[in-house]
Each structure stands twice: as C-alpha cells, then as structure tokens.
Give the backbone structure.
Amino acid sequence: MTDMAISLRNSNVGKLDEHEFDVLITGGGINGAVAAASLAARGVRVALIDKGDFAGGVSSNSSNLAWGGIKYLESHEYLLVNKLCKSRNRLMRAYPSTVKEIRFFTTIQRGFRFWPFFVFLGSVVYWVMGRFVTRAPRYVSARAIEAAEPVINTTHAAGGLEYSDCYLYDNDARFVFNFIRKSLNYGCIAANYVESLGARQEQGVWLTDARDMESGQALTIRSKAIINACGPYVDAQNKMVDEQTEYHHLFSKGVHLIVDQLTDNQRVLTFFASDGRLFFLIPMGPKTCIGTTDTQVAEPEVGVTDEDRDFVLANVNGLLDLNPPLTRADIIAERVGVRPLAIKGEGGEADWVQLSRKHVIEVNESSRHMSILGGKLTDCLNVGDEVADWVQRLGIDVPQPDNLWYGEPGAELRDEFMLQAHLMELDDLTDPSSSEPLSERFWRRYGESAFGLLERIREDESCVELLIENAEYTRCEIELAARREMIVKLEDFMRRRSKIEQVVRREEIASAPGLQEACEILFGDQADARLQEYLAGAQQ
C-alpha cells in the first residue's frame, strides 16, 4: 500500500482509541455516510467504522436510481411518495452533475391489472406531486412504443407511458463514498475494515470494543452516543449491545445483471416482470443493467443463483425482441444485495410489491443509542438532517447546526475548473469515443479535488492515459484514489470507488497490461499480494 494510503487509513485507526468522540457510527453504507457528513460538518466529533469497505453491501448493489417511488401510489402511500419526490428534487438541485433526470419508457401488457391509460393518469399525479420539476409524462400507444424502441416486443403490449425520474450517472457506491470523503474533510475519523465487537456503558460513556481486521489490533472506542447504521445488520448489532427496537428488518434479495448495451437510446425501459414487480433496463455507460428480482431471504448474506439469472434472462427475453436471445454467457457482471425493509415486530411474510422502503430512526434517549432502519438512497439527505436533530436533542453539543453539509461545489468554482480544463485542452488529450468529456467526468467524481488532477496532468501528460482499456479511469485518478480514498483491497477500487468491475469482464481486467501498474500505485510493496488476492477471489 502506498505511504499516503497508509498515513490516511492507519492514522485514523490509531486515533480511534486515542480520543473520546461525541458520536460513534457503525456502518459505512448510505445511512452511516450521510450521518457522518451531516454531523461532522456541523462540528460534532464523529468516528465511523465499517467491518468491510465503505458502501460494501446494498449501497453498492442498488438500481442506481434516485426516484420518487411511483410504485407506492398503488398502495396509496401518498405521503411517502410526496416525501420521496421532494427528496429526489433536493438531490437534483444539490448534485446536478451526478443525479440526472432520465426518461422512463414503460410498457403495459394486455391483461395487466390496470388499463394503460389509468397507469398514465397515475404518472400525471406523480408529476404533480413532484412539483413539475421534471418533464411532463405522456401516453404512448403500442405502435408508438415499437417506433421509438424497436427492441421492445410489442406483441402483447396494450400501450404505455413515458415519464421522468432520476438516476446516478456514476455508480451508487461512488456517491456514498463522496459523503465519507466530505466527512473526512470536516474532521471525522473514519476507517474501513474495522469491526465492532460489542459495546457497554460506563459512567455515561459508551466503550465499543473493535478490531482492525487488517492488523488484528484491538481497539476501544469511547463515545457519548452510538448510531447503529449497519444496514441489514442493524438487528444483529443491537442484539450484541443489548438494545431493543420496535422495528426490525425483513430482507428482500435484489439481483441485477449487466450486459452489453441493448439499445442506443439513453432512457430506462420499464416493464412489469412475471412476479408483478417493476423490472428495469437501465443505461450504464456502454452497458445495460437489467433487474431487479425480489425474493424474501432470512439472512443478509446472499449470492446470485442460477434461478436468479434465469428469472432475469427469461423476463428480458420475453419483453424484448433480441436475436439471438440473451444467455448466461452474455452476463458481464452481477449485482446482488438485500434491501433491509423496516417493519414492526419480528419475522413474518410480506407483500414485496406493496412493502415500501421508508426509513425509521429509533432512539433510546436514556442510553444515547440510535438505530437507523430501512431507507433508500433517494431519502438520504433527510436521514442526515434527522440524525443531526436527534443528536442535539440527546444533549450533545452541535456547534454549527446550520452548516450546509451536502452538495456539489458552487457554479463559480465549477466554471473556474472548466475554464482551466479548456485552456489546457484537457478533453483533446482523451479518447473522443468516451461517453463524456474527461473534464465533466473529473468534476462529477471529485469536485474541487479535480483541480489537483489538472495540476498533475500539467506536470506529466502521460498520467491521463487509461491503465485498463474501456475502464474510463486514468492513471492520475488512481493516484488520487491511493492518496485519499482508503483503498485496502483491489476490489475496493475496482467495484466501489469505480465501476470498472461492473462494465469490464473479469478476464479482460485480469489480462489488462496496466493492472500491475495500477496495483503498484494503489498498494506499493503490497501490490503483488493484493493483485493475487483479487484474482483468487475472481475465480471463486
């Protein structure tokens, strides 16, 4: 590992048991990430740990959509839809380079439980609840569907509609990590691969036993309060520290398959799968992400089965005119995770089409322990604000309660970056077949840190080269990741800080001439060991 990477992560690990924190957050998914950014920016002394990598679970296996929950209209959860639409609009304003409007093209088959025009009327209601921020929906006949998207099989189509929602231009894990990075900028002490082993209170202070999973070092982290943001592991974590909650989790497994691009049109194709659930074909650069499944499981540890693959493939082959049809051999990568669904009580069955993903924050005020259950990326800014409100109510000092803790840098700074990039002819240095100009990509991924990339390229133009073909990541970006992004394992970079592993086949990655150099940049004298660890994992 490079010296800079060691100095950041290992320095933070060392600080975890040197100080007493106001709040310790366990779990570095979207809920833990926004909690850390929200509190640290407001001046609260925060520590954050995760037993794996940041965004290592469901937060790196979503549909990459930031949507207002149109499907919840069917279950008459109008207040939830209203809240999610407001949250989506807030994300669009705060992250214009990342959270982008995209058209959804929905096909309704004959015999569906609602007439197509009735579904269209629902999309109008949805547009109104969304405050007219997006483009208006429109009804589409079966003939118009075929003309606009010839790949769609309209044999059994009764009609459809087109409406707008949002998606993440980059991957979800990158979006989550940027909250972690922002929290670090405000003084949060965050470290991945640090596991919580339990906690106890002594004289009003939480003592959390933890272990650095890389070195084996035992740690004791002192904090006034604990926030359990462990996603699907919230219940297990609460049991370990003897905290009771009214809500608990049920788990729904979702699977997406990534294949070569199925249509050139940059829109989301939406259908209702054979199990009644919404089924998407989502643009992912030069690829298409297909899914999702919805299967109740008992535990959060899940994998993709042949049954999952066959379900997705059977649906896409039935809904599209593909010649030849997709097979398992066409799968480039897979995404699988569980949605932790918050319900009152424990156990039981649920109607997966009806059950929403609303978040619940439960607080034990006497012990200063908080649990965040459920939730989805769209609603993440509300989670951050609610956590800060609760911390203040628990009697913990919040020095700057009104500080803005989220969002891209302002337009003036962006314009300055684009001017510098234009004057140095940055976009002329890159492959013109790339899906977007390099200047846009740098700004979206790194914000103000992208100025450092320009400086590095001025020093050495060769660092703008791609080390892995078709990956859209330059040498200078990998250098930046080594310094600032706590890359412990090669998978951390290949799958979460970037989406390389999700758009390039594993065998192409393994044979890429620049992979060894990328490892040397990221890991220094540990390069060979980390590369072999990654390649061994790919064969399992």
Summary: The chain has three domains: 3-57+173-246+355-393, 60-169+250-344, 411-538. The radius of gyration is 23 Å. The chain has a mean pLDDT of 93.
